[in-house]
Prior knowledge:
Number of strands: 5
Pfam families: DDE_1 (PF03184), HTH_Tnp_Tc5 (PF03221)
GO molecular function, one term: DNA binding
Radius of gyration: 35 Å
Organism: Adineta ricciae
Strand content: 5-15%
Keywords: DNA-binding
InterPro entries: CenT-Element_Derived (IPR050863), DDE_SF_endonuclease_dom (IPR004875), Homeodomain-like_sf (IPR009057), HTH_CenpB_DNA-bd_dom (IPR006600)
CATH architecture of the largest domain: Orthogonal Bundle
Number of helices: 7
CATH superfamily of the largest domain: Homeodomain-like
Amino acid sequence: MATHNFLTLDKKIELINDSANGAGLSQRELSTKYNISKGAVYNILQRQEEYKCDFQTNSNKGVKRKLQDDSGRKIDEAVFSWFTQQRSKNIPLSGPLIQEKAREFAEGFGCSPGTFKASNGWLDKFKNRHCITFRSISGESAQVDPATVEEWKKRLPALINSYAENDVYNAAETGLFFKLLPDRSMVLPKESCNGGKQSKERYTVLLCANWSGTHKLKPLVIGKSKAW
Protein backbone atom coordinates (compact mmCIF):
# COMPACT_ATOMS: atom_id res chain seq x y z
CA MET A 1 0.00 0.00 0.00
CA ALA A 2 1.46 3.35 -1.06
CA THR A 3 2.30 5.88 1.63
CA HIS A 4 1.46 9.52 0.90
CA ASN A 5 2.85 12.68 2.45
CA PHE A 6 0.97 15.19 4.55
CA LEU A 7 1.67 18.60 3.05
CA THR A 8 2.24 21.66 5.17
CA LEU A 9 0.72 24.99 4.13
CA ASP A 10 4.07 26.06 2.65
CA LYS A 11 4.22 22.90 0.54
CA LYS A 12 0.62 23.35 -0.63
CA ILE A 13 1.48 26.87 -1.82
CA GLU A 14 4.54 25.47 -3.58
CA LEU A 15 2.33 22.88 -5.30
CA ILE A 16 -0.14 25.57 -6.36
CA ASN A 17 2.70 27.63 -7.83
CA ASP A 18 4.05 24.57 -9.69
CA SER A 19 0.64 24.07 -11.28
CA ALA A 20 0.47 27.68 -12.46
CA ASN A 21 4.05 28.57 -13.43
CA GLY A 22 4.77 28.43 -17.18
CA ALA A 23 3.04 25.49 -18.79
CA GLY A 24 2.46 24.14 -15.27
CA LEU A 25 2.67 20.58 -14.06
CA SER A 26 -0.25 18.27 -14.57
CA GLN A 27 -2.10 16.82 -11.61
CA ARG A 28 -0.43 13.46 -12.29
CA GLU A 29 3.01 15.12 -12.24
CA LEU A 30 2.16 17.04 -9.10
CA SER A 31 0.96 13.82 -7.48
CA THR A 32 4.30 12.17 -8.25
CA LYS A 33 6.45 15.14 -7.22
CA TYR A 34 4.77 15.66 -3.85
CA ASN A 35 3.97 11.99 -3.22
CA ILE A 36 0.26 12.57 -2.68
CA SER A 37 -2.80 11.16 -4.41
CA LYS A 38 -4.32 12.84 -7.46
CA GLY A 39 -7.46 13.38 -5.39
CA ALA A 40 -5.41 15.32 -2.82
CA VAL A 41 -3.87 17.42 -5.63
CA TYR A 42 -7.34 18.15 -6.97
CA ASN A 43 -8.62 19.22 -3.53
CA ILE A 44 -5.63 21.53 -2.99
CA LEU A 45 -6.11 23.20 -6.36
CA GLN A 46 -9.83 23.60 -5.73
CA ARG A 47 -9.10 25.34 -2.43
CA GLN A 48 -6.06 27.30 -3.60
CA GLU A 49 -7.59 30.73 -2.89
CA GLU A 50 -8.29 29.66 0.68
CA TYR A 51 -4.73 28.38 1.11
CA LYS A 52 -3.26 31.53 -0.44
CA CYS A 53 -5.28 33.66 1.96
CA ASP A 54 -4.14 31.59 4.96
CA PHE A 55 -0.54 31.78 3.80
CA GLN A 56 -0.68 35.56 3.37
CA THR A 57 -2.27 36.00 6.79
CA ASN A 58 0.38 33.86 8.48
CA SER A 59 3.14 35.70 6.63
CA ASN A 60 1.78 39.04 7.80
CA LYS A 61 1.61 37.74 11.36
CA GLY A 62 5.22 36.66 11.10
CA VAL A 63 6.31 40.08 9.88
CA LYS A 64 4.23 41.80 12.54
CA ARG A 65 5.66 39.55 15.26
CA LYS A 66 9.20 40.21 14.04
CA LEU A 67 8.57 43.95 14.07
CA GLN A 68 7.05 43.70 17.54
CA ASP A 69 10.00 41.66 18.76
CA ASP A 70 12.50 44.09 17.25
CA SER A 71 10.76 47.18 18.59
CA GLY A 72 10.16 45.45 21.92
CA ARG A 73 13.86 44.67 22.21
CA LYS A 74 14.79 48.27 21.41
CA ILE A 75 12.31 49.60 23.96
CA ASP A 76 13.57 47.17 26.60
CA GLU A 77 17.20 48.14 26.02
CA ALA A 78 16.41 51.87 26.02
CA VAL A 79 14.33 51.68 29.21
CA PHE A 80 16.96 49.61 31.03
CA SER A 81 19.74 52.00 29.97
CA TRP A 82 17.67 54.94 31.21
CA PHE A 83 16.85 53.03 34.41
CA THR A 84 20.52 52.39 35.26
CA GLN A 85 21.42 56.02 34.52
CA GLN A 86 18.72 57.34 36.85
CA ARG A 87 19.61 54.92 39.64
CA SER A 88 23.28 55.90 39.35
CA LYS A 89 22.08 59.38 40.36
CA ASN A 90 20.07 57.87 43.27
CA ILE A 91 16.80 58.98 41.69
CA PRO A 92 13.84 56.89 42.98
CA LEU A 93 11.90 55.14 40.22
CA SER A 94 8.37 53.77 40.50
CA GLY A 95 6.54 51.33 38.24
CA PRO A 96 4.25 53.95 36.64
CA LEU A 97 7.26 56.17 35.91
CA ILE A 98 9.06 53.30 34.15
CA GLN A 99 5.91 52.49 32.14
CA GLU A 100 5.50 56.11 31.06
CA LYS A 101 9.15 56.25 29.98
CA ALA A 102 8.69 53.02 28.00
CA ARG A 103 5.72 54.52 26.14
CA GLU A 104 7.82 57.61 25.43
CA PHE A 105 10.63 55.49 23.97
CA ALA A 106 8.10 53.46 21.94
CA GLU A 107 6.79 56.59 20.23
CA GLY A 108 10.38 57.69 19.64
CA PHE A 109 11.01 54.40 17.83
CA GLY A 110 8.06 55.02 15.52
CA CYS A 111 5.27 53.14 17.30
CA SER A 112 1.90 54.83 16.92
CA PRO A 113 0.51 56.30 20.17
CA GLY A 114 -1.42 53.60 22.02
CA THR A 115 0.17 50.71 20.08
CA PHE A 116 2.65 49.92 22.85
CA LYS A 117 0.76 50.13 26.13
CA ALA A 118 3.55 49.27 28.62
CA SER A 119 0.98 47.33 30.64
CA ASN A 120 1.47 45.97 34.15
CA GLY A 121 2.25 42.63 32.52
CA TRP A 122 5.02 44.25 30.49
CA LEU A 123 6.38 45.89 33.65
CA ASP A 124 6.45 42.55 35.51
CA LYS A 125 8.36 40.91 32.64
CA PHE A 126 10.76 43.86 32.45
CA LYS A 127 11.48 43.57 36.17
CA ASN A 128 11.95 39.80 35.92
CA ARG A 129 14.29 40.08 32.92
CA HIS A 130 16.55 42.48 34.78
CA CYS A 131 16.02 41.16 38.34
CA ILE A 132 14.61 44.49 39.50
CA THR A 133 12.95 44.71 42.90
CA PHE A 134 10.97 47.40 44.73
CA ARG A 135 12.53 48.45 48.03
CA SER A 136 12.39 51.22 50.60
CA ILE A 137 15.07 53.88 50.43
CA SER A 138 17.18 54.35 53.53
CA GLY A 139 16.71 57.71 55.20
CA GLU A 140 16.40 59.51 58.48
CA SER A 141 13.78 58.37 60.93
CA ALA A 142 12.51 59.59 64.27
CA GLN A 143 11.08 57.45 66.98
CA VAL A 144 8.56 58.47 69.62
CA ASP A 145 9.31 57.32 73.14
CA PRO A 146 6.87 54.42 73.84
CA ALA A 147 6.83 55.29 77.54
CA THR A 148 5.50 58.77 76.79
CA VAL A 149 2.80 57.34 74.55
CA GLU A 150 1.64 54.89 77.19
CA GLU A 151 1.58 57.62 79.87
CA TRP A 152 -0.66 59.89 77.78
CA LYS A 153 -2.96 57.03 76.84
CA LYS A 154 -3.70 56.69 80.56
CA ARG A 155 -3.98 60.42 81.34
CA LEU A 156 -6.01 61.58 78.34
CA PRO A 157 -9.36 59.87 79.14
CA ALA A 158 -9.53 61.63 82.51
CA LEU A 159 -8.82 65.02 80.91
CA ILE A 160 -11.57 64.82 78.27
CA ASN A 161 -14.12 62.78 80.20
CA SER A 162 -16.39 65.76 80.93
CA TYR A 163 -16.50 67.00 77.32
CA ALA A 164 -18.75 65.95 74.44
CA GLU A 165 -17.06 64.44 71.39
CA ASN A 166 -18.02 67.48 69.31
CA ASP A 167 -16.14 69.72 71.75
CA VAL A 168 -12.85 67.81 71.84
CA TYR A 169 -10.40 69.07 69.23
CA ASN A 170 -7.01 67.86 68.14
CA ALA A 171 -4.50 70.01 66.27
CA ALA A 172 -1.26 68.80 64.75
CA GLU A 173 1.53 70.54 62.92
CA THR A 174 3.11 68.78 59.97
CA GLY A 175 5.52 69.55 57.18
CA LEU A 176 4.47 69.39 53.54
CA PHE A 177 7.57 68.65 51.45
CA PHE A 178 6.05 69.46 48.08
CA LYS A 179 9.24 68.65 46.12
CA LEU A 180 10.13 65.48 47.99
CA LEU A 181 10.87 62.38 45.90
CA PRO A 182 9.34 58.94 46.71
CA ASP A 183 10.90 56.89 49.51
CA ARG A 184 10.69 53.62 47.53
CA SER A 185 12.29 52.71 44.22
CA MET A 186 12.90 49.95 41.71
CA VAL A 187 16.49 48.76 42.16
CA LEU A 188 18.90 46.19 40.74
CA PRO A 189 20.14 43.20 42.76
CA LYS A 190 22.86 44.03 45.31
CA GLU A 191 22.37 47.75 44.62
CA SER A 192 22.51 49.83 47.79
CA CYS A 193 19.10 51.44 48.03
CA ASN A 194 20.19 54.97 48.83
CA GLY A 195 18.50 58.14 47.78
CA GLY A 196 20.14 61.38 46.75
CA LYS A 197 19.94 64.65 48.60
CA GLN A 198 16.29 65.31 49.31
CA SER A 199 14.68 68.68 48.78
CA LYS A 200 14.14 70.57 52.03
CA GLU A 201 11.58 72.97 50.58
CA ARG A 202 8.44 72.70 52.64
CA TYR A 203 5.31 74.35 53.91
CA THR A 204 4.31 74.11 57.55
CA VAL A 205 0.68 73.04 57.85
CA LEU A 206 -1.57 73.07 60.92
CA LEU A 207 -4.50 70.64 60.77
CA CYS A 208 -7.33 70.64 63.30
CA ALA A 209 -10.63 68.78 63.68
CA ASN A 210 -12.99 67.70 66.45
CA TRP A 211 -13.20 64.15 67.77
CA SER A 212 -16.50 63.33 66.04
CA GLY A 213 -15.20 64.59 62.69
CA THR A 214 -18.15 66.96 62.26
CA HIS A 215 -15.99 70.08 62.28
CA LYS A 216 -12.74 70.36 60.34
CA LEU A 217 -10.99 73.68 60.45
CA LYS A 218 -9.45 75.13 57.33
CA PRO A 219 -5.72 74.22 57.29
CA LEU A 220 -3.28 76.96 58.19
CA VAL A 221 -0.27 77.05 55.86
CA ILE A 222 2.99 78.88 56.47
CA GLY A 223 5.59 79.21 53.72
CA LYS A 224 8.71 81.26 53.17
CA SER A 225 8.22 85.00 53.18
CA LYS A 226 9.12 86.97 50.07
CA ALA A 227 10.29 90.53 49.79
CA TRP A 228 7.98 92.49 47.53
